[in-house]
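All the exercises in this workshop are built on plain-text protein records. Instead of coordinates, the fold is spelled out as a row of discrete tokens. Once this layout is familiar, the rest of the handout is easier to follow. The record below serves as our worked example for the rest of this section.
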Amino acid sequence: MDTNQENNKQTCNLSVRYGKDISQINTIDLFSENPLNIFTQKNVPNYGTKLDVWEAIEKRELALATSQPPTNYFQKMILWTEQGKVWKFPINNEQGLEEENEVHFSEHIFLDMLLEGWCPTKGPIRHFMELVCVGLSKNPFYTVQEKKEHIKWYKDYFESKKDVLAEVGAWDISSQSENTKTVS
């Protein structure tokens, strides 16, 4: 059969099925009419979506595909040095602690001053927070800023639960009011 005859046969079948002659069906252009202005349009330029995770994975895969494993011990040590697994030469015991050079060691140890003004002077919360301060003062791996943020997190937590703690008697209101009077 000729392809023309097949097309005519298909057209006849469709026209019988839908009851219309297909040659008379009009196409509609959806974008030719005026919009209804139901939605507001923001003229934001689209520069494409930035996929940070996707790009990081792609970079990692590219690095893995192009890099070759070390062939000897020297290349292995160079790779470990670049990854930060081995200290850079010449050896410096304070490598990576540049931001801590400005901070006196006493700020790492004496953290009780951060409890003044918000923590009760006695009771279970004070005891707990003193233990937190002792633990943080013995931790050489946290910076002073991280230690302060750690204590601030506990402060925010206990202040959010202040009503419940006062109800069960763990938050001593009288000792805190005396504390604020002596500070004023």
